[in-house]
Amino acid sequence: MEDFIRGIPKAELHLHVEGTLEPEMTFALAARNGIDLPFTSVGEVRGAYEFTDLQSFLDIYYHGAAVLRTAEDYHDLMAAYLRRAAADNVRHAEIFFDPQTHTSRGIPFETFMVGFERAQRAAEREFGMSTSLIMCFLRHLPEEDALATLEAALPFLSQIVGVGLDSGERGNPPEAFVRVFAVARAHGLRAVAHAGEEGPPEYILGALDALGAERIDHGVACEQDEAVLRRLITDEIPLTMCPLSNVRLRVFDRAEDHNLKRLLDLGVRVTINSDDPAYFGGYVADNYLMAQRALGLTREDVVRIAANGIEAAFLDATRKTELLGEVQRYAG
Ligand code: ADE
Ligand code: ZN
Hints:
Layout: H1 2-7, E1 10-16, H2 23-33, H3 42-47, H4 54-64, H5 71-87, E2 90-97, H6 99-103, H7 109-127, E3 130-138, H8 143-153, E4 160-166, H9 178-186, E5 190-195, H10 202-209, E6 215-218, H11 226-234, E7 238-241, H12 243-248, H13 260-266, E8 269-272, H14 277-280, H15 284-295, H16 299-311, H17 317-331
Parallel strand pairs: 1-2, 2-3, 3-4, 4-5, 5-6, 6-7, 7-8
């Protein structure tokens, strides 16, 4: 089963590129950019990755991104992720990035977009992987900041397939971002949002109704409200679930408590993804494996989840058919 899981063709739809910054790269970029770190070893950095909730993680995560300065840095970060994803047979990736984490430190939009693009083109050539970017707005900041970020992104829209909403969820409802999502959608961008990770099930409805989200990132809280659960099933709304993240951020106490398999069995369009793999102890295949072992996913479940990821992707029909064919042939 492990080999079957590692090799199955996958789409990854919930991955923050800043969350792929491995401690080894943190040290390499700090040295290259002449930045002093408050840590002396990779082991010490990993030891600091003990989280009690989402915010305790975000505090470390936003800090960590400060070593990213040049287009080369952003290229190296993206290239390392895409190489690692290719090893898990990720055939298509939709990659989140948080512009505000970088522009707030004075990094121009162009710097990271140029770096990302070079790595994406190389992965397409080398691995035959398709990739696109989803620009996330930080929900702990005002909507005005998000609107200014969207404005700054306009020259780069051909590189961006959609917008998302991330950062601390509690007390930051989706309704606060109605205007910026409306403008983004008017520009032809697709919409997703983190909802029901730590926040209440109503935030899932808010993401769908106020923001026009087509997929929900995490969404584990849907189980707390029968009407929300029904809505996800009836409207075939995909959930981009990240089981290792949920356990590391104590959304669930134990892997065995995760509701991914229950939701799948109820007919929810569950997908498996890695969120911030450098911080949560595993890339996408590790997330599949953890869910398979802890929740008893069958081979058919694994195939269904991999196919769900491809069906939920913002891809044209031709590429979807091609990738679904790869999954079918693999599954025999
Ligand atoms: N940013 C990076 N990872 C996140 C998560 N799991 N939830 C909200 N914001 C994030
Ligand atoms: Zn996330």
